[in-house]
Specification:
The chain is α+β, with helices and mostly antiparallel strands. It has helices at about 15-20, 25-30, 60-70, 110-120, 125, 135-145, 160-175, 280-285, and strands at about 5-15, 35-45, 45-50, 70-80, 95, 100-105, 185-190, 195-200, 205-210, 240, 250-255, 260-265, 270-275. β7 and β8 form a beta hairpin. α4 runs parallel beside α6 (about 135-145) and α6 packs across α7. The chain is globular and about 55 Å long.
Length: about 290
């Protein structure tokens, strides 16, 4: 399976440590996930996406990019292919307009249900699917559900985004899981640069909102109590999602199957649960 990293902050921040410097940084994890990588970051509310089918740790572009990326929102992914060939078209994150998406999981026997799934995507959106992965198809199903709630080029509330995630993943399970002995694994992260949402859909996902002690506390103008302790207000200064706890100062908490968590444009944490998910089934499957 793949590895995910999502980041939101009140100030533009370097993510070099998470992508490359820490002992279990995303680049290091690519040793076991060698089928490509991608990094998306936002400049003036516009996503900049770099993707490659090369092994991240051996790719000089990944090294250069990890050293210069400084943004309020970052979404990164290293790939271990389960569906689709090793190709830049199949590398995550996927982008449409302001929306960026990455997936860790698998739809068993995807080839048998691909056309059925894509039939539920409006032709106007479906024509932009360029690769042959289950992940990209899930992304466009999510966009189709989001568009039901309003134009994709306008800001959506985090409640709308969570609802679209719920509807899209419910649809995937309705279309796919009855035909397969194993459930679809649908852990994902999606963002428009303002809101960022992750769902534990059967593969591990962790989050962090504070550090044991901020190494920049003496020079950071945005330091607040929420930086070094659980939030008492619901608002945070930084929010991180990762497939595994990254080494460093951050305090990590694991999500359970069915959990959906994210931050809105004001950096307020929202957490809910997809009650339809049978967590025991997923835990045994993963």
């Amino acid at each position: 399976m793949c590895r995910l990293f999502g980041f939101r902050s009140v100030i533009p921040s370097q993510v070099h440590s998470s992508l490359l410097a820490a002992e279990n940084a995303l680049g290091t994890q690519s040793t076991n996930h060698p089928d490509g990588w991608g990094v998306a970051y936002y400049i003036d509310d516009c996503p900049q996406v770099m993707r490659s089918a090369e092994h991240a740790l051996a790719d000089q572009l990944f090294h250069r990019l990890s050293g210069v990326v400084s943004s309020e929102t970052v979404l990164a992914h290293v790939r271990k292919a389960t569906q689709g060939e090793r190709s830049v078209l199949n590398c995550h994150p996927f982008q449409y307009g302001r929306w960026v998406f990455a997936h860790n999981g698998d739809i068993p026997n995807f080839s048998a249900v691909k056309e059925t799934m894509r039939h539920h995507i409006p032709p106007r959106l479906r024509r932009f699917i360029l690769g042959d992965t289950d992940s990209e198809t899930i992304f466009y199903l999510l966009l189709a559900e989001l568009e039901r709630l309003g134009p994709l080029n306008r800001a959506h509330s985090i409640d709308e985004l969570i609802l679209a995630v719920r509807r899209a993943t419910d649809l995937v399970r309705d279309l796919c899981d009855a035909q397969n002995a194993k459930p679809s694994l649908l852990t994902l992260v999606v963002t428009d640069g303002s809101s960022l949402v992750g769902m534990h859909g059967g593969k591990e996902l962790y989050f962090s909102t504070y550090k044991k002690s901020c190494p920049e506390r003496d020079r950071c103008a945005s330091l607040s109590p929420e930086c070094e302790a659980p939030t008492a207000t619901g608002f945070v200064n930084h929010f991180i999602l990762s497939s595994e706890p990254l080494q460093g100062f951050n305090v990590w908490e694991g999500l359970q199957a069915g959990d959906i968590i994210g931050v809105d444009a004001r950096m307020k944490v929202v957490r809910t649960r997809l009650e339809r998910v049978d967590s025991r089934r997923f835990l045994s499957a993963s």
